[in-house]
UniProtKB/TrEMBL annotation:
<keyword id="KW-0472">Membrane</keyword>
<protein>
    <submittedName>
        <fullName>1-acyl-sn-glycerol-3-phosphate acyltransferase</fullName>
    </submittedName>
</protein>
<dbReference type="Pfam" id="PF01553">
    <property type="entry name" value="Acyltransferase"/>
</dbReference>
<dbReference type="GO" id="GO:0003841">
    <property type="term" value="F:1-acylglycerol-3-phosphate O-acyltransferase activity"/>
</dbReference>
<keyword id="KW-0012">Acyltransferase</keyword>
<keyword id="KW-0808">Transferase</keyword>
<dbReference type="InterPro" id="IPR002123">
    <property type="entry name" value="Plipid/glycerol_acylTrfase"/>
</dbReference>
<keyword id="KW-0812">Transmembrane</keyword>
<keyword id="KW-1133">Transmembrane helix</keyword>
<comment type="pathway">
    <text>Lipid metabolism.</text>
</comment>
<feature type="transmembrane region" description="Helical">
    <location>
        <begin position="12"/>
        <end position="34"/>
    </location>
</feature>
<dbReference type="GO" id="GO:0006654">
    <property type="term" value="P:phosphatidic acid biosynthetic process"/>
</dbReference>
<feature type="domain" description="Phospholipid/glycerol acyltransferase">
    <location>
        <begin position="76"/>
        <end position="190"/>
    </location>
</feature>
Length: 256
């Protein structure tokens, strides 16, 4: 990494952290008096857009979105792979209002956590997986009925670029029980914003929004089948983006 790049990254994090503190503090005093949708825009959309401007100006990371025409009119469950912090900024601004699953401890962080608590997140206890699943199902269903997008990272945590995690069924179960589709999203953000370390690479992050996927029936089998379809689509799309190695062909090779 060059000295110039290191300075740009330092300035990016300095402005990102400072703006987060100032904006969350301001939101703490203003947002409680706003209706939910206006509150979401004030707290999340405006700051996330500002963060993405910092990403573009200081890190020279841009974004290309394919498949925006696939977004349904009615909010549903979004299933996205998870490689970095970038996609949380981007998706929170792109889909609104949006709720996502996060660690309950984050809500206790002064000002930042207090501001997040006003956005109707699904704050779970990761040490109690069974209770967390029930909480996602109950709160997620209510959010969907209120017209709020629910973002699920089915891998459960950030996965390094070049790998893919196992998809949990919580998101597809939520969609099936609410009689709604899942909206699959794949991206290669980890190529430019790695999971580990502070380093960043200039380039264009590609985000692909697939067609909404509906379950064929109800019950555990329908949930599992929909989850497998979403996982297969994400894996194939990541391969096409170059995030995963190309799959070796099993077709017989011609004899020369």
């Amino acid at each position: 990494m060059s000295i110039l790049q290191a300075i740009r990254i330092f300035l990016f994090y300095l402005l990102l952290g400072t703006s987060s503190l100032l904006w969350c503090t301001l939101s703490f005093f203003i947002a409680p008096f706003l209706p939910f949708r206006a509150r979401y825009r004030f707290i999340n959309v405006y700051w996330c857009r500002f963060a993405l401007v910092l990403v573009r100006v200081f890190l020279n990371i841009r974004v290309k979105v394919t498949g925006a025409e696939n977004i349904p009119a009615q909010p549903c469950v979004i299933l996205s792979n998870h490689q970095s912090t970038w996609e949380t900024f981007f998706l929170s601004a792109y889909f609104q209002p949006l709720s996502q699953v996060l660690k309950r401890e984050l809500l206790f962080v002064p000002f930042f956590g207090w501001a997040m608590a006003m956005l109707r997140p699904i704050a779970i206890d990761r040490d109690n997986p069974k209770a967390a699943l029930k909480q996602v199902a109950a709160e997620g269903d209510k959010l969907l009925k209120d017209g709020v997008w629910v973002l699920i990272f089915p891998e459960g945590t950030r996965v390094p670029f070049g790998k893919i995690g196992k998809f949990s069924r919580g998101g597809t179960a939520l969609a099936v029980n609410a009689n709604l589709p899942v909206l699959p999203i794949a991206h290669n953000a980890g190529k430019y914003w790695p999971k580990e370390g502070w380093g960043k690479r200039a380039g264009t992050i590609e985000v692909v929004i697939g067609e909404p996927m509906y379950a064929e029936g109800t019950g555990p089998r329908a949930i599992a089948a929909l989850n497998d379809r979403a996982a297969a689509w994400n894996e194939q799309t990541q391969r096409e983006l170059g995030s995963l190695p190309a799959q070796a062909s099993n077709d017989p090779q011609p004899v020369t």
